[in-house]
Specification:
Radius of gyration: 21 Å
Number of helices: 23
Number of strands: 7
Helix content: 40-55%
Strand content: 5-15%
Structural class: alpha/beta
Strand order of the largest sheet: 2-1-3-4
Distance between the termini: 57 Å
Oligomer: single chain
Length: 406
């Protein structure tokens, strides 16, 4: 796609990167077929190709409007289009740059500004989230049905092993996972301990930065990234093998630290090292001897697995979890349109509730079509979103391995 940068934007690093990406696009339209919002809304401006044109106009100097902002906001950033694209267009990075440019030029309505400020001052901070989650769980019987579905089910995380093994890995706790789905990382710690690996949660680490980054507060997001790098670095120097993410959405962000902090003189090398060490839990388990989990896998019953977009499209790990689970003897039921987003997409379900609910309803119908005994996924956002749509517990797939530990 031929693009000419507007003179007044010629020195903007976001524009320079965007222009390089825009030139890769050949207008083929393959991305439309796998775009959830285009399939729902039928408007090309709500497709990757349409949004690419909108960003192209901004790069070339056109003044963005509220409509520009609306269509960019409606994108789930599921990156299914990247999986489909024959030209290798890095749409996710392009959208980040485009949104940031438009955000600076278009003022949002007051209600949107207040909602975003509230989310940014609450969600990325575990100590602020935890008390409200606990209050919601205690008062769930008193809440209206419309709110009850949004309250995470209380979990018994179980014990975190204190064994000191020869091998050590770190785990990202994240911001909401410790209070909303504490069983995930505890189960991961037990599974890895059974394989001779000690899993460490580093107290001073926290939110991966994705909440701020995707709400166009990239400067603040970088501060979260630097804090995590500083917290992890002594353990990396001491020989930690990997930084594990059990939330695939966080994994995409941490794996992108090297790119985001690529122009930071003090952190770029450390950021690149952290990105290289970051592994989704499935990547770690793929290379381990898991034979001890095979004996009881059938006890779990039929499983419907939802592969998060951040795992299959963002981290480029399609079918990785499904292959591992079926290889261990778990019975996975087929799920139609497994490449399509469930509608969670980080804070998307908060800011685009109607589209999000439609996508969730479609996903729940696909997941329950073959009457599974359990629904599993690999990202906390998808887990809670689907749980609200089904009214039943949805688990992280690593909990299945924890259940069959002998």
């Amino acid at each position: 796609m031929q693009t000419s940068i507007a003179p007044e934007l010629a020195n903007d690093a976001r524009v320079i990167e965007a222009e390089k990406t825009l030139r890769k696009c050949v207008h083929c339209g393959f991305c439309l077929a796998t775009c959830p919002t285009y399939n729902l809304l039928g408007d090309e401006l709500d497709s990757p190709r349409g949004r690419i044109y909108l960003i192209k106009q901004v790069v070339e100097g056109s003044k963005p409007t509220a409509q520009t902002l609306k269509h960019l906001d409606r994108c789930l950033t599921c990156r299914s289009c990247e999986t489909t694209c024959p030209s290798g267009v890095e749409y996710g990075h392009l959208l980040d740059n485009g949104r940031s440019l438009v955000e600076e030029q278009v003022e949002r309505p007051l209600k949107q500004r207040l909602m975003r400020k509230a989310i940014l001052n609450f969600l990325p901070f575990p100590k602020r989230v935890a008390p409200l989650v606990k209050m919601g769980q205690l008062a769930s019987r008193l809440l209206p049905n419309s709110l009850v579905a949004s309250v995470p089910l209380k979990q018994d995380a179980g014990l975190w092993p204190d064994t000191k093994n020869d091998r050590t890995m770190l785990v990202l706790d994240g911001c909401v996972q410790p209070s909303m789905t504490p069983a995930t990382n505890a189960a991961t710690a037990r599974v890895l301990n059974a394989l001779g690996i000690t899993l460490l949660s580093v107290e001073k680490s926290g939110c991966c930065g994705a909440v701020h980054f995707h709400l166009n507060k990239q400067s603040d997001a970088k501060d979260f990234m630097r804090r995590n790098i500083d917290a992890w670095w002594p353990y990396i120097e001491a020989g930690a093998e990997a930084i594990i993410t059990t939330a695939s959405g966080c994994g995409v962000m941490v794996k992108d630290y090297g790119h985001v902090l690529g122009d930071d003189h003090d952190y770029k090398e450390k950021a690149a090292r952290v990105s290289a060490l970051c592994k989704d839990v499935v990547q770690v388990l793929q290379s381990e001897d898991l034979s001890r989990f095979k004996a009881r896998a059938k006890e779990i019953g039929p499983v419907a697995f939802h592969p998060p977009c951040t795992l299959q499209h963002g981290q480029k790990l399609p079918l990785a979890t499904e292959t591992l689970l079926t290889g261990l003897g778990f019975e996975l039921k087929p799920v139609a349109d497994s490449h399509i987003c469930c509608g969670s997409a980080g804070t998307y379900s908060i800011f685009q509730p109607e589209i999000s609910r439609q996508l969730r309803d479609n996903k729940v119908a696909a997941l329950t079509a073959n009457t599974p005994a359990i629904i599993a996924t690999a990202n906390i956002g998808c887990q809670l979103h689907l749980q609200a749509g089904t009214g039943k517990a949805v688990v992280h797939w690593v909990e299945l391995l924890d259940k069959v530990l002998d």
